[in-house]
Write a structure and sequence with these properties.
Layout lengths: L1 E7 L6 E5 L2 E6 L6 H9 L6 E6 L9 E4 L12 H11 L4 H15 L14 H13 L5 E5 L7 H14 L3 E5 L3 H4 L4 E6 L2 E7 L15 H16 L1
Parallel strand pairs: 3-7, 3-8, 5-6, 6-7
Antiparallel strand pairs: 1-2, 1-4, 8-9
Helix pairs in contact: 2-3, 2-4
Length: about 230
């Protein structure tokens, strides 16, 4: 589990919570502290007080995958192949195994045709997929997506969510403003003015009822179940 104990940074009030393995959605208005909280979890930002432990370890001791809203700001290499290979090369994975994994990931995400492309020539969607693959390829302890879905359509988001479910990554934490995307999570946290105002399990049928509203992730969870049931029928 991820244990956050009275952790504080920036505009965040001291936060204490437990995050279970699975997918966690974080939502809230602009300026609520979502990105600050994600940076604390990733180890990019150190708490001014309190502590964060990921399965008993400090974030700095863990492997972190990060994809932001504008991944072009964090590009390391010119060629797509090298961008995907870099997390493996940094951990001294052999050239043969690196090549095999890069090509397998590219095939799974449908970006094999991009491997020899220049990173600067990619479209926004292509860039997101490449950044996402680079963040996942070393199977990090925790994958963090900071409003990565802001400019993506539903089909694109579904493609990424399906890949996440198959990835074996223990913790996936993403921030979003979109209730239909929150619905794919196992848990949800709402931040407002640096404080947690809501934390619910979206998998718990005995939890508080969710309103039938387009702004409620529980509503979208119900819609998704009905669509799946209709497709199975």
């Amino acid at each position: 589990m991820i244990e956050v104990s009275s952790a504080r940074a920036g505009t965040l009030s001291p936060l204490s919570l437990t995050i279970h393995p699975g997918i966690l959605a974080i939502t809230g208005p602009n300026g609520a502290g979502k990105t600050t909280f994600l940076r604390l979890l990733s180890g990019i930002l150190q708490p001014t007080c309190g502590s964060i432990k990921i399965d008993g370890k400090d974030p700095a001791e863990c492997t972190i995958g990060w994809v932001g809203e504008y991944p072009d700001r964090n590009v390391l290499f010119t060629r797509v192949y090298d961008e995907l290979a870099s997390p493996l090369r940094f951990t001294r994975v052999s050239c043969t195994k690196t090549d095999q994994k890069v090509r397998r990931f590219a095939k799974d995400l449908g970006i094999t045709c991009l491997l020899d492309r220049n990173m600067q020539g990619l479209s926004g969607g292509e860039l997101i997929l490449v950044a996402f693959a680079a963040a996942c390829i070393a199977v990090p302890d925790i994958l963090i997506l900071d409003e990565t879905d802001s400019h993506l359509d539903e089909l694109f988001c579904d493609h990424i969510e399906d890949f996440i479910r198959r990835s074996g990554i223990r913790y996936v934490i993403f921030s979003t403003h979109r209730p239909e995307r929150m619905a794919v999570a196992d848990e949800m946290i709402r931040l407002e003015k640096g404080k947690i105002t809501e934390q619910i399990s979206l998998n718990d049928p005995s939890g508080p009822p969710q309103p039938d509203s387009l702004s409620a992730p529980g509503f979208w969870r119900k819609v998704m179940r009905e669509l799946k049931a209709g497709g199975d029928g």
